[in-house]
Design goal:
The protein is mostly helical and 224 residues long. Helix content is 77%, strand content 0%.
Length: 224
């Protein structure tokens, strides 16, 4: 209880919220890194998953290759990137490692969602004279949206938790609070940093949970 009380005191101290190394600035850095990596991951994974899911070809191979990447720890990827010429380019090793980490759940869920769309609905849409593009965007994507959002939610929450490794490469984010706590042998600061990461992840989870509850309404409107 003494450690938790000290961690609470650290969190509620105004001095720890201001300045370059304060909670407010570190939280902004963490949010920026998470959003950037999530957007890059979506730009890579979702187009591939949507097209392969629409065509029904090559998806299983792409998903298996993507999932194989989960066997490689993100920290190991970061360390290897830091040893290459990429390591001389600021935050890029961290960004690449996190993007590779976020792609598998996005690709898998989007592909499965596309292939899970009712085939009778697809055939009916084709019978109405819809083109491939119309079928993709007006029928398949809206109906697959809940599962696509599940992949985005999983990737976002994982990124929030894993983005703490940026501190190990000299980057910003909430991980800097934890590493600074270790360097100062300050257990309350370490606990406080961990609590902040956990609360941030729960907040992101809540935002996407709300979006997923609304998704069926969007899907019905899009499909209609």
């Amino acid at each position: 209880m003494n450690t938790l009380s000290a961690a609470w005191d650290w969190l509620t101290s105004a001095a720890n919220w201001s300045g370059e190394g304060g909670i407010g600035n570190r939280l902004g850095e963490h949010l920026f890194l998470t959003v950037l990596c999530l957007l890059l991951s979506c730009l890579i994974a979702l187009p591939v998953a949507l097209v392969l899911g629409h065509l029904g070809r090559g998806g299983a191979l792409a998903v298996n290759i993507s999932n194989a990447g989960r066997a490689v720890p993100t920290f190991a990827v970061l360390v290897l990137l830091l040893l290459t010429p990429v390591g001389r380019h600021g935050q890029w090793p961290t960004i690449i490692a996190l993007v590779l980490f976020a792609v598998p759940p996005l690709l898998t869920n989007a592909y499965v969602g596309m292939r899970g769309v009712d085939r009778d609905t697809v055939r009916a849409a084709r019978g109405m004279g819809m083109t491939g593009g119309q079928l993709l965007w007006r029928v398949e994507v809206p109906l697959a949206l809940p599962l696509i959002l599940t992949g985005v939610r999983v990737a976002a929450v994982q990124l929030v938790a894993t983005a703490t490794i940026a501190a190990l490469a000299g980057g910003g984010g909430l991980g800097r609070i934890i590493t600074a706590g270790f360097n100062l042998a300050s257990t309350p600061q370490v606990v406080a940093g961990a609590v902040l990461v956990a609360l941030f992840a729960l907040l992101v989870e809540g935002v996407f949970e709300t979006a997923q509850r609304l998704a069926p309404q969007w899907a019905r409107r899009g499909a209609s």
